[in-house]
Design brief:
The complex is a heterodimer. By secondary structure, chain A is an all-beta fold. Chain A is about 0% helix and about 60% strand. Classes of the chains: A mainly beta, B mainly beta.
Chain lengths: ~110, ~110
């Protein structure tokens, strides 16, 4: 069974700090990697997609991918209380002849004012 | 605003009821998904439709019955559910392999 592992958290950072969220995956054939943000009681919201090794920046968010190490991370700069949410890492994987997204268990982030 | 619309937002049903969850997308996506999410857990895949055909059924009990009437619509028919089926039910669509899932706002289901 292909797996995606995330820091269990919770992760607590002060307002204005950098929050670092990490994710490892087991399927070396994975090609697409996503970070979703989920507020309590709400549905997951896509915040970053990354497909190639290296960094991808979008505003205060930076996704980093290292396929050799099977590692993907999300950095949130200048963290705001509104960033407090659970962050889900999702990785595509081929299992039993089907392609599907495998989700990690999520890391709960709290940004303290 | 989400481009995947789910109705109803909330649903309370008894164990003998029959109800349906509905999902609609107009992004031209040809793959549509049903997920179940319990509190403090990640989304759990239930069904995948690709080009209106059921392509993945994750061994879901038969009291859940999916239907894809056309490329824009996805239904989940519910019958004789159990209290442990209470959860957030998420519909999602996807354009191509390797593209992200776009989730609807979900239906909060409570089985009494």
């Amino acid at each position: 069974q292909k797996e995606v592992e995330q820091n269990s958290g919770p992760l607590s950072v002060p307002e204005g700090a950098i929050a670092s969220l990490n994710c490892t995956y087991s399927d070396r054939g994975s090609q697409s990697f996503f970070w979703y943000r989920q507020y309590s009681g709400k549905s997951p919201e896509l915040i970053m997609s990354i497909y190639s090794n290296g960094d991808k920046e979008d505003g205060r968010f930076t996704a980093q991918l290292n396929k050799a190490s099977q590692y993907v991370s999300l950095l949130i700069r200048d963290s705001q209380p509104s960033d407090s949410a659970t962050y889900l890492c999702a990785v595509n994987s081929y299992q039993g002849g089907s392609e599907k997204l495998v989700f990690g268990k999520g890391t709960k982030l709290t940004v303290n004012p | 605003d989400t481009e995947v619309t789910q109705t109803p937002k909330h649903l309370v049903m008894g164990m003998t009821n029959k109800k349906s969850l509905k999902c609609e997308q107009h992004m031209g996506h040809r793959a549509m998904y049903w997920y179940k999410q319990k509190a403090k857990k990640p989304p759990e895949l239930m069904f995948v439709y690709s080009y209106e055909k059921l392509s993945i059924n994750e061994s879901v009990p038969s009291r859940f019955s999916p239907e894809c009437p056309n490329s824009s619509l996805l239904n989940l028919h519910l019958h004789a559910l159990q209290p442990e089926d209470s959860a957030l039910y998420l519909c999602a669509s996807r354009g191509t392999l390797n593209s992200p899932l776009h989730f609807g706002n979900g239906t909060r289901l409570t089985v009494t």
